[in-house]
Amino acid sequence: MKEVWVFIEQERGIIHPVSFELLGIAKKLALALSGKVAGVLLGYQVELLVEEIFSYGADRVYLIEHEVLLYYRHIPYVKGVSELAKKYQPEILLLGATPLGRDLAGGVATQLETGLTADVTELTIDKETGHLLMTRPAYGGNIMATIVCSQHRPQMATVRPRIFSIPEREPLHRGELIREQIEFKEEEAKVKRLDFIPKEKMVNLEYAEVIVAGGKGVGGKEGFGLLQEIANELGGEVGASRLAVEAGWISYDHQVGQTGKTVRPKVYMAFGISGTIQHRAGMQNSDYIIAVNTDPQAPIFKIADLGIIGDWKKIAQALLRALKRERGFYE
Amino acid sequence: MLNILVSIKQVPDTTNIRINPETGTLIREGIPSITNPYDVVALSLACELKQRYGGKITVITMGPPQAKASLREAVEFGADRIILLCDKKFAGADTLATSYTLAETIKFLQKDDPFDLLLFGKQAIDGDTAQVGPGVANRLNIPVITYVIKLQDIDLINKKIIVHRKIERGVEVLEASLPVLLTCEKELCATPFVPLEQVIKATKAEPEVFTAEGPVIFTREKLGLKGSPTQVKKVFTPELKKQGKIYNLEEVPLEKVIEEIIGVLKEKGLL
Amino acid sequence: MNKYLYDVVIIGGGPAGLSTGIKLAQKGLKTLLIERGRFCGAKNLFGGVVYTSSIKEIVPEFPEVDPSPVERPVTEEGYFFLSKEGVVKILHTKKRADESFTALRAKFDAFLSEYALKKGIDLAPKTKVIDFIRNNGFIEGVIVDRPTSFEDPSPATIKAKVVVIAEGVNRLLTEKAGLVTKTFEPEEVVLAVKEVLQLPKGELEARFGLSNNQGLAVEIFGEITKGLPGTGFLYTNKTTISFGIGIFLKSLMDLNLKPYEILEYAKLHPYFRELFKGSETLEYGAHLIPEWGIKGLPKPYGNGVLVVGDAAGLVNPLFREGTNLAIYSGLMAAEAIFYAFEKGDFTERSLRRYEELFKDSFIYKDLVMLKDLKTFLLSNSHLFQVYPEMIYDICSLYFSAQGRYKRDVIREIFGIIKKKRGYWGILRDFVKIGRFLW
Ligand SMILES: Cc1cc2nc3c(=O)[nH]c(=O)nc-3n(C[C@H](O)[C@H](O)[C@H](O)COP(=O)(O)OP(=O)(O)OC[C@H]3O[C@@H](n4cnc5c(N)ncnc54)[C@H](O)[C@@H]3O)c2cc1C
Ligand SMILES: Cc1cc2nc3c(=O)[nH]c(=O)nc-3n(C[C@H](O)[C@H](O)[C@H](O)COP(=O)(O)OP(=O)(O)OC[C@H]3O[C@@H](n4cnc5c(N)ncnc54)[C@H](O)[C@@H]3O)c2cc1C
Ligand SMILES: Nc1ncnc2c1ncn2[C@@H]1O[C@H](COP(=O)(O)O)[C@@H](O)[C@H]1O
């Protein structure tokens, strides 16, 4: 039976949502291959996560627990995943294109001497050959390339968060748990974590339901203050184009696009953003796009569900007033 | 004394990339080639460390003959030895074949004098894969730390290094034993304003050229297109979603537009 | 002790600086050329026709060089008279294909700098000269924006017996050296804008009727500049077209026009719209062309210093000469420097040799002949407006004369002439142009 594997990214017992997204797409791929979905979980004292993995559709979970795996380190994690793959020969192995996932994937692919496609945004099975078709942006998002790995197994890919949606949770779904014992030695890890400095404020762009984004057209820091107010009203986050980030109006954590984050909120509002291909790459999967721009030719309008030609500030101010009124705070 | 290796790649300047709208192909004409910006960070760090601790910098790149320009640029940063891996047999390599070719070359170069520090870019801006660095480290069996944003300390006597690594939720402070391979983020090091003598020296520098025939001995099957498990099957331009409603504020009253937005927010359950 | 000691320092890596450098290196003088761009040619712009004879003076083996800077040899040359509605073309198939060729600056300058490096000069790209080392009215070297060494962060100073200023039109250092006192006026410079356009594959040859090793170079008058004093140009490269316009800065300022607007406007003309259909702009650039005339030239020499090329005002826009004049001035400067080294005297007294050589050359004579060019053109701007329209209208009548009584046609033609300029007007223009050129 062919298996589609998903590496379950966890830190301190919390699973990264991208792993659920991958379980969802893995299910579709497995269906096309008449195969099964398996989650691969490494860590220390993480067994309680197994149920959650099953509930997102995994038929199997491969579990390796060891003290050395307490937090992510390249060498032991590569060893763990590679040994599993050598033993069980999965057809496909998917990882999130997060810093952790990319770091791990590069090592595993080398150990297994197989192909690895980075930052994939589309996955399908070629009906004729049964090969995995992996589509990804290249050259700054200007073109898309479809890549195959026909002769080597597993077919590996890292996938951007928020490209696929999280599947419906089935709390009762269960599968088979396979525990693997692998020897690890602390010295082998060669790297030790001395400290961890958490981010002061996590910007939860990827998983925000509403994003109020601004670009060069917003004109300065103050403008982003106004956008923040709107976002607060809606319980959303503020996004930004690269030019706004480079201008120092807002921090890089807020950047949306090719070199920033991929987002798929229910509503994405773009104020004063031209909508170049690199920006669109990060937000075109949003459910509903509202764009405000003074330039009728701005490419953002080509993907907007609702486009407004006009000054962003006028609209933003009016919108804020209306939102406050809606919520009954107005005067 | 530090023995440093930097691996760099010449890439098309993706800010200038244009696509022919009719054929959907890349227009290569007139697109300048640059040294991958993250690799410039790696060179900058090497430069700074050499000034601080003394030592030697070796720079390698695999690419077509034009990639010499990037190696010359490396000399500005104080590179002592520059090597171009150039052969048709290397061409068409994916990250697996690239990491093989680079790793074998590094093994050859460090036979007598092992490298302490191997610096790679976070990723190359043409492919954006970020896979070559970890791949090389695995082949060399040395630790790798990706996304490094700060080098806090090097202890040359105990052969240890402390660096900061950027991950999603914050910054990890990591200690590793040398040799180690680091992949460099933008924040790691500012580009130095290199002195005049280096610039003059760089224009005259000629790299050593290594081919598939030697001096490194390669397994042929692992090189270039042959050694690449991934194949690009199709290349196309991304499609645009269909256009929706457009209002012009000069024609439609503001209230109407705001009402519409509020309507959408309600419909999506956000209000 | 100074770290950097040279016989000659050249400021600027355009054709002027590079040809000076190549010539000096051939005689073994220790030469450093400083260029602020990423490489020679990175920051530069030209229309694109270069004359073989001048190149051969510095690169004798030309055109047998690899890689070659030649885009296409110019095999057809001529004028387009553009009216609002259409165009009248005068094209001349050249007797010899090897007199001139089209080139792109980035490649051409890079070619010369490679050659200069091979001949043994030192080159410092990405480096800007910010001042001179001065001593008692002597220029003894330059100061650059780069540090001296990794250990010494102070700006590097480079000592030299002679400094050659080849900085181009913006002559800031020429001013700093005290060789010219006033900055230029808008009526003294032409602003040229240029695009490099790429046509779909095979279209260039098809649309211009060229084979692979044929090239076209035309100057365009009339509507292309909206009738302002100036010209447009169109040259064919290997796979691209250089298309641009040069207009007096003053005219642009008077009408508050931005250079790219004019170029965009020109590309909307029905003829060019069709000609450039499906094209893609690869490059865009704007650059000034000096038009100082003989009276506005800087003093081209001083104690320990010489000025060459555009910085010295050596351009003849009427005959599209610039690169070659830059090269010739470089050669003359090199010769004057050899003379100075022979005598061991780097004062004005021996460097004046440069001006003597210069005054003997056709360059100087041309400049004298065209000394009133800008005044003439600016005060006769109707030439650019009236004639191209008139020529087109006349041709329209003449070439549609079939099936009509020809005397009527001729009468109408004379009617046009009368209306547009009048017989006397035309006669006066002819006399004026004749006098000016004689
Ligand atoms: C659209 C696209 C998407 C890709 N996605 C992935 C992916 O997800 N996973 C993956 O593993 N790989 C992928 N690749 C390949 C990957 O980007 C590159 O293989 C990797 O970054 C290194 O490439 P390269 O430098 O070998 O090749 P290129 O990107 O083509 O770079 C230049 C190369 O020119 C070649 N070359 C040409 N002439 C010569 C010569 N005379 N001598 C030597 N070399 C020569 C060299 O191989 C050199 O490296 C992708 C490639 C493309 C084009
Ligand atoms: C390799 C690469 C990666 C990149 N990655 C990213 C990325 O991840 N994310 C990203 O965003 N960019 C990225 N970029 C940059 C991208 O190409 C654009 O430069 C950038 O997105 C443009 O930002 P902008 O839309 O804010 O600015 P501009 O393009 O300058 O647009 C500003 C817009 O504001 C409008 N405007 C002005 N005043 C007003 C007003 N008063 N009211 C309303 N509208 C107004 C203007 O009409 C204009 O359309 C990348 C580029 C490259 C080459
Ligand atoms: N062809 C190459 N030659 C030398 N180094 C390379 C090459 N390709 C990638 N690298 C190095 O690997 C890093 C990551 O590249 P990539 O995995 O392609 O994103 C780059 O920043 C370089 O340091």
Topology overview:
The complex is a heterotrimer of chains A (331), B (271) and C (438).
Chain A: E1 3-8, E2 10-11, E3 14-15, H1 17-32, E4 36-43, H2 50-55, E5 60-65, H3 74-88, E6 92-96, H4 99-112, E7 116-120, E8 122-125, E9 132-138, E10 143-148, E11 155-159, E12 176-179, H5 186-189, E13 191-198, E14 210-214, H6 221-234, E15 237-240, H7 242-246, E16 267-271, H8 277-283, E17 288-293, E18 306-309, H9 312-326
Parallel strand pairs in A: 1-4, 1-6, 4-5, 5-12, 6-11, 7-11, 14-15, 14-16, 16-17, 17-18
Antiparallel strand pairs in A: 2-3, 8-9, 9-10
Helix pairs in contact in A: 3-4, 6-9
Chain B: E1 2-7, E2 10-12, E3 18-19, E4 26-27, E5 33-35, H1 37-53, E6 55-62, H2 68-76, E7 81-85, H3 95-109, E8 117-121, H4 132-140, E9 144-155, E10 160-167, E11 170-177, E12 180-184, H5 196-204, E13 208-210, E14 231-236, E15 245-248, H6 254-267
Parallel strand pairs in B: 1-6, 1-8, 6-7, 7-13, 8-12, 9-12
Antiparallel strand pairs in B: 2-5, 3-4, 9-10, 10-11
Chain C: E1 4-11, H1 15-26, E2 31-34, E3 49-51, H2 52-58, E4 72-73, E5 76-82, E6 87-93, E7 100-102, H3 105-119, E8 122-124, E9 129-135, E10 138-147, E11 155-165, H4 172-176, E12 189-198, H5 203-208, E13 216-222, E14 230-236, E15 240-248, H6 249-254, H7 259-268, H8 270-275, E16 280-290, E17 301-302, E18 305-307, H9 323-343, H10 348-351, H11 353-360, H12 362-369, H13 373-379, H14 382-398, H15 406-420, H16 423-437
Parallel strand pairs in C: 1-2, 1-11, 2-8, 5-13, 11-18
Antiparallel strand pairs in C: 3-7, 4-7, 5-6, 9-10, 10-11, 12-15, 12-16, 13-14, 14-15, 17-18
Helix pairs in contact in C: 1-3, 1-9, 2-9, 9-11, 14-15
Protein architecture, described:
The complex is a heterotrimer of chains A (331), B (271) and C (438). Chain A has 331 residues and is α/β, with parallel strands linked by helices. Chain A contains nine helices and 18 strands. Chain A has helices spanning 17-32, 50-55, 74-88, 99-112, 186-189, 221-234, 242-246, 277-283, 312-326; strands spanning 3-8, 10-11, 14-15, 36-43, 60-65, 92-96, 116-120, 122-125, 132-138, 143-148, 155-159, 176-179, 191-198, 210-214, 237-240, 267-271, 288-293, 306-309. The longest helix of chain A has 16 residues, at 17-32. The termini of chain A are far apart. Chain B has 271 residues and is of the alpha/beta class. The mean pLDDT of chain B is 89. Chain C folds into three domains: 4-63 and 101-184 and 295-369, FAD/NAD(P)-binding domain (3-Layer(bba) Sandwich), CATH 3.50.50.60; 186-290, D-Amino Acid Oxidase, Chain A, domain 2 (2-Layer Sandwich); 381-437, no CATH class. Helix content of chain C is 37%, strand content 26%. Chain C is built from 16 helices and 18 strands. In chain C, the strands form three sheets. In chain C, strands 1, 2, 8, 9, 10, 11, 17 and 18 form an eight-stranded mixed β-sheet that branches. In chain C, strands 6-5-13-14-15-12-16 form a seven-stranded mixed β-sheet. Chain C is globular and about 85 Å long. Strand 13 of chain A pairs antiparallel with strand 11 of chain B. Bound molecules: flavin-adenine dinucleotide (2 copies) and adenosine monophosphate.
